[in-house]
């Protein structure tokens, strides 16, 4: 396996002697600073300041597939208190989607790419790459930022125990709330039983086109998926309008799901610019791809940070 240059050395060290580092890894996890998060209102905004340290036990970092150590951050995000839906969804890439109530960011995209024209982006949950995610679907960026790629099981357990109920887990960059995988079976009826929400995405049929990684669509890449209206409970932004425990009159809200897109891959409203400025950097340490013409290729880093359409 060829590694991206900036991560080759620590990863090789881990793979060469991971067993010798187990005690060091465990010690690093046990010596984390305490979780710090402050959520306040500031004019027309909700302000979230946090150090990004989880308030639940993380997995072992560094590990075989993730050479990074969890470290404190200096997050200072703001989201609209009264968000509004946009006429069309707002796509984004390589920036946090939102932040948890515990101050850990939701950052669903991987920084691993199949280098072609256009580039194809690996899906963290697609099976082709192993990013060393822990039981909370999280891992660590090179700058120490622990972040979620999916349902934050540790956070949800802390908030709800083993109960299946609707749980507010964070705020999206556009200001709308983010909930765990369970929501009312009838969107506008808080007395209806909760059920696990089903996303409306599926893997495309057939084979990938020329100039791509080739082979059948199998979920390995973000481009392998498509939205199928009516397939599940949620819209293309993995959300819906309904009542919630915190919004008994109703609101648009996002849902984290255990199938693609896991964490929403587009906004239903306008994301605040503070997320574009302060997102954790990407990092690539997965398997290389192949060049467009079959020659040596590999991962390439994403384009400049910021909101905008995905590069495919």
From TrEMBL:
Pfam families: YHYH (PF14240)
InterPro entries according to UniProt: YHYH_dom (IPR025924)
Signal peptide annotation: 1-27
Amino acid composition bias (Gly residues), ranges on this chain: 280-298
Ranges for region Disordered: 271-312
Keywords from the UniProt entry: Signal
Keyword Signal annotated: yes
Residue intervals of the YHYH domain: 77-269
Membrane-crossing residue ranges in chain numbering: none
Ranges of biased composition (kind: Pro residues): 299-312
Protein's UniProt name: YHYH domain-containing protein
Organismal lineage: Bacteria, Pseudomonadati, Verrucomicrobiota, Verrucomicrobiia, Verrucomicrobiales
């Amino acid at each position: 396996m060829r590694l991206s240059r900036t991560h080759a050395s620590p990863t090789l060290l881990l793979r060469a002697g991971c067993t010798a580092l187990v005690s060091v890894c465990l010690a690093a996890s046990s010596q984390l600073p305490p979780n710090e998060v402050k959520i306040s209102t500031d004019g027309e905004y909700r302000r979230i300041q946090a150090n990004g340290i989880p308030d639940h036990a993380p997995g072992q970092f560094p590990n075989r597939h993730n050479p990074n150590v969890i470290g404190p951050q200096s997050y200072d995000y703001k989201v609209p208190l009264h968000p509004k839906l946009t006429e069309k969804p707002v796509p984004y890439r390589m920036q946090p989607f939102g932040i948890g109530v515990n101050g850990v960011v939701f950052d669903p995209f991987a920084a691993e790419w199949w280098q072609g024209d256009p580039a194809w982006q690996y899906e963290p949950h697609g099976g082709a790459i192993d990013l060393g995610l822990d039981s909370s679907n999280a891992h660590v960026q090179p700058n120490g930022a622990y972040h979620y790629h999916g349902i934050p099981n540790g956070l949800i357990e802390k908030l709800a125990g083993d109960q299946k109920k609707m749980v507010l887990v964070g705020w999206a960059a556009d200001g709308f709330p983010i909930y765990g995988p369970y929501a009312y079976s009838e969107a506008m009826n808080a007395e209806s039983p909760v059920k696990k929400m089903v996303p409306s995405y599926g893997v495309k049929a057939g084979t990938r086109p020329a100039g791509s990684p080739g082979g059948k669509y199998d979920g390995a890449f973000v481009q392998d998926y498509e939205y199928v209206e009516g397939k599940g409970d949620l819209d293309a932004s993995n959300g819906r309008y309904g009542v919630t425990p915190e919004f008994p009159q109703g609101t648009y809200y996002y849902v984290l799901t255990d199938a693609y897109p896991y964490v929403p891959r587009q906004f239903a409203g306008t994301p605040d610019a503070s997320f574009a400025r302060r997102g954790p950097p990407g990092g690539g340490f997965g398997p290389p791809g192949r060049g467009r013409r079959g020659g040596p290729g590999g991962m390439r880093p994403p384009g400049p940070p910021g909101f905008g359409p995905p590069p495919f």
